[in-house]
């Protein structure tokens, strides 16, 4: 019998708790909030990377400052697997909701504290040290969020609508990045360079604190995952989820897929939305505002594209969506990148939008696909560890890798090459997965 049929037949909750559709909506919104804050932080960091380079890593060589800033950007991604292992184990042992409350608190506080750090000129070497330490905390929180947050959403969604519900989280990431982009664009357009370096860069980070408070309240009102509650009632919660994940050949194979399958998800996000604004300004000689506006348009289109992709995957399956979008990026990657290099705002928008739509086909379906690969008892830890390992290797290091290769080779085509190669690997991997869209979640 499908798991969700048991959940629907369970006795109603106490009158003090929200019930029925309202409870599901509140829980889904609660699951989305942390994803929003996580991506908002990353987006803000990438969009003000040039300013952060001056504030925290002053150097006579501007390229060195930018590279050091991207090193600090990459640090939390290599700490994410630790957060995934610890917070994922907690999520499989004590429930998704409790862990999500801890994660949103850590993420919002650490992000806001970045905005309160002194500059290198005021505190010397302690300024970049403080930045790196806070990035470690953010890395831990970011590592625990995907496995817990997306599992929470998938488990609340019910049969036949998991793709649509989890795609809300993907749309939330685009909205978060769009907010960060517009905020950075407004600050860049209205503040002088000296004002931006003195205090303007702090504002987007400080905004994370009130966002976190709202998110914490909403998550407290959420219900625990019905899948976890049922597993707990039936005595199926394992005491050592991490150990079970690494000793089961079947789960290990699925974890391998979570590393490779999201290649386009990782490389596309960081190349298109984090690295590209700086690249357009420094290498393609767009103004800072023009580069941010191109990104904003790309994100606005992506919001609707990921929602459409998630809904469509409930009808045609995850496998078709993932493989089609990945191979689509292989086909359009170089031509669209060529449009970006023409120096025209209009052609840059066309190239960026086409890549955004193709990327959304993967982004809108990836997280629900990964959640469906694992059984409830180890879902958050196995999903989280595998996904974050891949993100650390192919995503977090992407801006630094691309910047270094461009500096070494002088080729402006490095971002396109990286994007197309990773898309090809992701596409062939998608062809090998089993279709899971039309089955109940594994127990």
CATH architecture: Up-down Bundle
Q: What is the 3D form? A: globular
Annotated CATH homologous superfamily: MFS general substrate transporter like domains
What's the number of helices?
21
Q: Could you estimate the helical fraction of the residues in percent? A: over 70%
Class computed from helices, strands and strand pairing? mainly alpha
Average per-residue pLDDT, rounded, comes to 84
SSE run: HHHHHHHHHHHHHHHHHHHHH
CATH domain class: Mainly Alpha
Radius of gyration: 21 Å
The CATH topology annotation reads as Growth Hormone, Chain: A
| Total DSSP E strands | 0
Head-to-tail CA distance between termini:
11 Å
Largest sheet report: none
InterPro entries: H+-coupled_symporters, MFS, MFS_dom, MFS_trans_sf, Sugar_transporter_CS
Pfam families: MFS_1 (PF07690)
Subcellular location: Cell membrane
Protein name: Major facilitator superfamily (MFS) profile domain-containing protein
Detailed description of the structure:
By secondary structure, the protein is mainly α. It has a single domain, classed as MFS general substrate transporter like domains (Growth Hormone, Chain: A), CATH 1.20.1250.20. It is built from 21 helices and no strands. The longest helix has 33 residues, at 62-94. The chain starts with a helix and ends in a 13-residue tail after the last helix.
List keywords for this structure.
globular; 443 residues; transmembrane helix; Major facilitator superfamily (MFS) profile domain-containing protein; Growth Hormone, Chain: A; disordered N terminus; mainly alpha; transport; 82% helix
């Amino acid at each position: 019998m499908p798991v969700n049929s048991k959940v629907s037949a369970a006795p109603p909750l106490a009158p003090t708790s929200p019930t029925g559709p309202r409870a599901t909506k509140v829980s889904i919104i609660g699951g989305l909030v942390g994803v929003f804050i996580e991506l908002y932080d990353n987006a803000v960091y990438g969009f003000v990377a040039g300013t952060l380079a001056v504030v925290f890593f002053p150097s006579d060589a501007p390229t060195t400052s930018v590279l050091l800033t991207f090193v600090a950007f990459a640090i939390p991604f290599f700490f994410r697997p630790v957060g995934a292992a610890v917070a994922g184990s907690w999520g499989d042992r004590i429930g998704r909701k409790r862990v999500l409350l801890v994660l949103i608190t850590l993420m919002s506080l650490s992000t806001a504290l970045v905005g309160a750090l002194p500059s290198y000129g005021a505190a010397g070497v302690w300024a970049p040290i403080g930045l790196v330490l806070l990035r470690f905390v953010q890395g831990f929180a970011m590592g625990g969020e995907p496995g817990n947050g997306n599992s929470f959403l998938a488990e609340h969604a019910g049969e036949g609508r998991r793709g649509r519900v989890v795609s809300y989280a993907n749309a939330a990431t685009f909205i978060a990045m769009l907010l960060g982009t517009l905020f950075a664009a407004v600050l860049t357009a209205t503040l002088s360079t000296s004002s931006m370096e003195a205090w303007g860069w702090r504002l987007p980070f400080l905004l994370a604190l009130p966002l976190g408070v709202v998110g914490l309240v909403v998550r407290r009102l959420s219900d625990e995952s019905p899948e976890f509650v049922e597993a707990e009632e039936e005595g199926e919660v394992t005491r050592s989820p991490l150990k079970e994940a690494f000793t089961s050949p079947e789960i290990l194979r699925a974890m391998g897929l979570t590393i490779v399958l999201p290649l386009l998800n990782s490389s596309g996000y960081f190349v298109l939305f984090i690295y590209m604004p700086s690249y357009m300004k420094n290498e393609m000689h767009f103004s800072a505002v023009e580069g941010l506006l191109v990104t904003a348009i790309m994100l606005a289109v992506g919001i609707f594209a990921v929602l459409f992709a998630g809904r469509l995957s409930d009808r045609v399956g995850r496998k078709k969506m993932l493989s089609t979008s990945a191979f689509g990026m292989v086909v359009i990657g170089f031509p669209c990148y060529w449009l970006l290099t023409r120096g025209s705002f209009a052609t840059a928008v066309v190239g960026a939008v086409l890549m955004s739509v193709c990327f959304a086909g993967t982004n809108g379906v990836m997280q629900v696909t990964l959640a469906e690969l694992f059984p409830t008892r180890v879902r958050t830890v196995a999903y989280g560890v595998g996904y974050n390992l891949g993100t650390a290797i192919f995503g977090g290091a992407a801006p630094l890798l691309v910047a270094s290769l461009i500096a070494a080779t002088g080729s402006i085509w490095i971002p396109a090459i990286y994007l197309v190669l990773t898309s090809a690997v992701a596409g062939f991997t998608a062809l090998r997965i089993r279709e899971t869209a039309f089955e109940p979640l594994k127990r």
